[in-house]
Amino acid sequence: MAHSRTSWSYRSSERWRLGLDSESLTTRFPRLVTCDISGYGESGPYDMKAYDLLVQCETGLAAVTGSELELGRVDISICDIACGVSAYSRLLEALIEREETGRGDSKNTFVDRGEYEYV
User: Fold this and answer.
1) Structural domain total, the chain
2) How does pLDDT run across 100-113, given as a tens digit for each residue?
């Protein structure tokens, strides 16, 4: 695990059950850098999956594309891309922090977070 790039697609509750949550992993591997990506957050009523088109509608992006008569969607999965860019920047931040402190860190981002920055 110390030198791997790993990804998986489990709900936060499933990651906790399997011991694959960031807290458990960084306890076992103190230099490990992780980034959790969720739809809207890891807990509470918004602990749900997110789909690009749904997030486009919820963030208002669909309202500013299309026509006056009907909403439109961006033809690419812009919310997923924005989330990936957000995760990438958070991982870079954690890697820089690790170089300075010697310890890994756990970052997180949400599918809708990146889109709010774009809208």
Assistant:
1) 1
2) 999 999 888 888 76
Task: Please name the residue that has the structure tokens 């690419």.
Answer: 76
Q: Tell me if 87 is assigned to some domain.
A: yes
Please state, in angstroms and rounded to a whole number, the distance separating the CA atoms of residues 53 and 113: 14
Handedness of CA 105, 43, 12, 61 (dihedral sign): negative
Q: Is residue 109 part of a domain?
A: yes
φ, ψ at 37 (rounded to 5°): -115, 125
Residue 91 lies in a domain: yes
Active site residue 80: yes
- CATH number, domain of 112, equals 3.40.50.10540
Set 21, 80, 105, 112: catalytic member: 80
End-to-end CA distance of the chain: 37
Nearest of 2, 76, 82 to residue 37 by alpha carbon: 82
Helices 78-101 and 52-59: crossing angle, nearest 10°? Answer: 90
Structural domain boundaries, residue 102: 12-118
pTM attached to this predicted model? 0.78
